[in-house]
Amino acid sequence: MPTFRSKALEDVFHRKPLVVEPAGKISEFYGENVFNQHTMREYLTDEAYEKVMDATINGTRIERGIADQVATSMKDWATSRGATHYTHWFQPLTGATAEKHDSFMQPTGDGRAIEKFDGSLLVQQEPDASSFPNGGIRNTFEARGYTIWDPSSPAFVIGNTLCIPTIFISYTGHALDNKVPLLRAIAAADKAATDVCQYFDRDVKKVTITLGWEQEYFLIDRALFNARPDIALTGRALFGHAPAKGQQLDDHYFGSIPDRAMAFMKDFETEAHRLGIPVATRHNEVAPNQFECAPIFEEANLANDHNQLLMDLLDKVARKHDFRVLLHEKPFEGLNGSGKHNNWSLSTNTGVNLLKPGKNPKSNMRFLTFFVNTIAAIHKNADILRAAIAGAGNDHRLGANEAPPAIISAFIGSQLTEALDALEKNIKAGKMTPDDKTALKLEIGRIPEVLLDNTDRNRTSPFAFTGNKFEFRAVGSSANCSNAMIALNTIVADQLIEFKKNVDARINKGEKKDEAILKELQKLIKASKNIRFEGNGYSDEWVKEAKKRGLSNLVNTPQALSVLKRKETRDIYSAMGVLAPEELEARVEVEFENYILKRQIEARVGADLAQNHIIPTAIAYQTRLVENVKGLKDIMTAAEFKKASSTQVKLIKEISEHLSAVKDDVDALRAERKKADKMTDVEKIANLYADKVMPLLNSVREHSDRLEMLIDDEMWPLPKLRELLFTR
Ligand code: ADP
Ligand code: MG
Fold this sequence. Notes:
The protein is an alpha+beta fold. It folds into three domains: 31-175, Glutamine synthetase, N-terminal domain (Ubiquitin-like (UB roll)); 187-579, Glutamine synthetase/guanido kinase, catalytic domain (Creatine Kinase, Chain A, domain 2), CATH 3.30.590.10; 594-726, Four Helix Bundle (Hemerythrin (Met), subunit A) (Up-down Bundle). 51% of the residues lie in helices and 12% in strands. Strands 9, 10, 11, 12, 13, 14, 15, 16 and 17 form a nine-stranded mixed beta sheet that branches. Strands 1, 2, 5, 6, 7 and 8 form a six-stranded mixed beta sheet that branches. A hairpin with a 7-residue loop joins strand 1 (85-90) and strand 2 (98-103). The two termini are 16 Å apart. The protein binds adenosine-5'-diphosphate (ADP) and magnesium ion.
């Protein structure tokens, strides 16, 4: 049997995949833990069912009597699935989900009890909300916050609890969560897109925003995770020399899935399917122990709830399999980080995907309208989009030369580039003749229904068109998709409204509808050209080129968040009815605080580990070398000694250098943190962490990682990256 540096490593070696009982045909249990349409049909009266459907689709209010009916049925269904408790399930600005469980049980006064649940408990609750982040919206003396039922996302049972998706607002009616602005942004995009659709089809009454996320994650053995305080507390390895073998060989990507990981995947997928989360694909990702799962796309609000739920499931099921799942954007320096691609499109009640090229000039005109307007929205509001994906973890990805860069650009592929170039060139300035129009229609008709070039192969673009949808790739793996979706839908809504206004103005001046649309599209194609980039987004040339084009390169979170303080940002969020100025302001405060807290924890853990683990180990090893040298001196001639001790002496000196560097950096880092503690402006504190603390933490790491290479393997106190990543 091999020998191990630690008990933890030995444990990992002996682990077997958990035996997961086959769950049978997915169709037989899919959605069984969800109070979905199918179940509602069975449990609700026709009237209640119609009312809930109406609320789901059109956002109408559900009156009290109906709510009572729904509550009773929901309880009957949930208890039949083993639920004893219920909770309002919501998404406060912590980024995670929150729940507080209450029992259905009510004593009847005769020594017994019954299960009870009524409409008022279903519709609204007042959780003790004073400790959720609120950015100052809710002063502590007015700590009331309400959770309110969101009927558009169905209730579900997990374990013994009925979970009811809710929004979370303050007593003053302000959004305290991610769902409220998401629902508002979706409504704004729906309205704006539906209005624009009237040019093409008067039967369009509703446009649904669709979202298909792809979730990347790392799996680490639980014992090793627990032996790494940095990973356990911050989600990423603050120390650790890169393993000799990382991802150079590309042998992990799409490789056969390791047995233990496979057992885990089957298990969480079954749980996901029971909850009606349509996860469909699984594969190994680029880095060792990195994986991805993706569902079939859904309506954006539901898709986002499902992603939140899935992240929770991943964590729970992983523990059962003696794994820990890392959702951090960059757990391991030198290896690929994890993202959460947000595939986004718009689809009509008439069954049309508005971002799918069509069969004829007319449908392609519609496609081009939504396609070009999306690009124009990105161009005009690239910084807002950048701000939406900002976060301490994602800073290690964006601009770190591997994942999408921090510069926002859009990739559309060569065929569409040609098409847009042709439109830009061939639409005449003056009045168009019938011949001009025919020629243009021909050109537009040439965009094929299925785009031939592999548009999705440019993996370096943060925002890529992939055939029938845009893929926002710069979103971080731990993020709540709603941040990205709020921003994207808001800016697209704004752009579509402006487009409609301009086209209508032309029509009112006597231009024909098609001509008016084409002229406006041409204007947008020209104006937004700078945001289109087809080359390698990771290259240094792109950074230079982007600068020349005047595109922003907001390299860290504090810089990106400052965008949210601009007047233009405030105006657009407020005009689209997504976030009132005070709601936005509160969010900015919360996000800065979040960034600061995360960096603060990292700085503390990093300093502690350096001081308490790494420095003592280095000193112990150095002492051993010193003793060795002294011993040699005792038994050797001067000439012999000089030769025999030279390696040790060199090592002693090298260790000393790194030791004092680590200590100096740790001291400097503590001094900077003390400064931060005395400051009150969150933006300034965040910048201090980004500009002063982070470089010091990186330097501590650099020297510690060198020490890791110098010191006896057996003495090193932390599991090494090669052990974390290659032990299965
Ligand atoms: P890749 O890894 O090449 O990006 P995947 O197949 O893993 O591709 O992911 C594609 C994602 O895009 C899936 O989640 C899928 O459901 C989603 N998707 C496909 N069509 C749409 C659409 N119209 N709207 C939103 N998402 C979509
Ligand atoms: Mg993708």
